[in-house]
Amino acid sequence: LSHQSSEARLYTFSQETKDKLRKFRLGTSRAKGPQAVIYQIDKKTLEISQADDEVYTDMQELADELPDNAPRFVLLSYPLTLASGRLSVPYVMVYYLPVTCNSEVRMLYAGAKELMRNTAEVGRIIDMDTPEELEEIEEKL
C-alpha cells in the first residue's frame, strides 16, 4: 500500500488533453453563456482526461451527468453581469467530491487537485459534494 501512495503523485496529462485544456480556457472568455467540461482520473494509469466530449452549457444537465459516488473535476466558465453592469467571466474548477466516495478514490482526486488547478490555469476551486449545488453556482462565484 505504501507503494501505491507514492504512485499517487504521478498523475499524467496527454499532450492532447493539455491542448484541450488550453483551448477550452481561451475559448471560454468569448462565450455568451456558461460552459463546463468534466475531467476524471483513470485509476489504473493515473491519467487525467476529459470524461466525455461534451461541453455543458446547462447546469441541470451537468448535474445529471455527475456520478453519485465518484469524484470529478469540472472546469467551468460562467459569465456574470456584475452589479456595476460590467461583464465578468469567472473561470473556476469545481471539485466535486460526493460524501459516498470510498477513501481510495477520494485520495486519488485530492492528490491531483492542485495539479489539475495549475494545469487548467483556473483562478479558484469551489468544493461541492452534491450535484444539486451546481444549480446555485452563481452564489458561489
UniProtKB/TrEMBL annotation:
SUPFAM superfamilies for this protein: Actin depolymerizing proteins
GO BP terms: actin filament debranching; negative regulation of Arp2/3 complex-mediated actin nucleation
Gene Ontology, cellular component aspect: actin cortical patch
Domain ADF-H: 9-141
GO molecular function terms listed in the Swiss-Prot or TrEMBL record: actin binding; Arp2/3 complex binding
Family as reported in the entry's similarity comment: Belongs to the actin-binding proteins ADF family. GMF subfamily.
Entry protein name: Glia maturation factor beta
Source species: Delitschia confertaspora ATCC 74209
